[in-house]
Amino acid sequence: MKKLVRNSMLVGAAVLGIGSLGTVAQAATTPEPTTPTTPVTSEATAEITPGTITLSSSPSFQFGKVEASANDVSYNSTSVSGDLKIADVGTGTGYTVTVAASPFTAKGGAALKNAQLILNNKEVTPIKADDADNVSTPPTLVTNLTLSSSPVTVLNAAAGSGVGAYTGTYGATDASLKVPAGNIGGTYSSTLTWTLANAPA
Fold first, then answer.
1. CB neighbours (10 Å) of residue 85?
2. Confidence bin at 15 (pLDDT 50/70/90)
3. Which residues pair with 33 in a beta bridge?
């Protein structure tokens, strides 16, 4: 009986040995090496033809009906119509806008002597791009101007800036009219001439 048990143990050990040898003999699989691919390039081209610079709109100021004064007096405008609109269609050359005011005169030819028209834009951002994602530096709007018959610069864009469409907005009370004492009442008007020059100041 002891011999039979011993033989069984030897046979079992031999079987276990064969199982262990079989496990060790399994070959490990190695992935095939990959060859890097060379990038392929192409290109996209665009030829953008510049357009022109245009001044398409300018503001008018109304002072309404006011009382005359025996002393020097300053009247604030009561309304404004129109905006200052300019567009540079891709030139980037820069530009300047000037404005001049003729003397205030009545229909019969009487003059409002030595009167001064002053534009004082009170907007936090006096001129804005019409498109919020415009990447160009905007032109500069001069916010406080005393007008006369000689042109003064109201808007300026340096070379490389002011590209795209822009609007300068004046508020209803952004103009004032200073009238010296001694003037006669009447209905007076002045012509404002806004001039675009295709060159920065």
1. 18
2. very low
3. none
DSSP of 129-148: ESSTT--SPPPEE--EEEE-
Where does residue 107 rank: exposed (0-12), middle (13-18), buried (19+ CB within 10 A)? Answer: exposed
In one letter, which amino acid is 140?
Answer: T
Residue with tokens 């160009």: 136
pLDDT at 24: 52
- Whether the model clears a pTM of 0.70, i.e. scores above it, the answer is yes
Helix (H, G, I), strand (E, B) or coil at 86: strand
Which residue is associated with the tokens 């392929």? 40
pLDDT in tens, 148-164: 999 999 999 999 999 99
How far is the C-alpha of 164 from the C-alpha of 128, rounded, in Å?
A: 10
Residue with token string 């009370």: 173
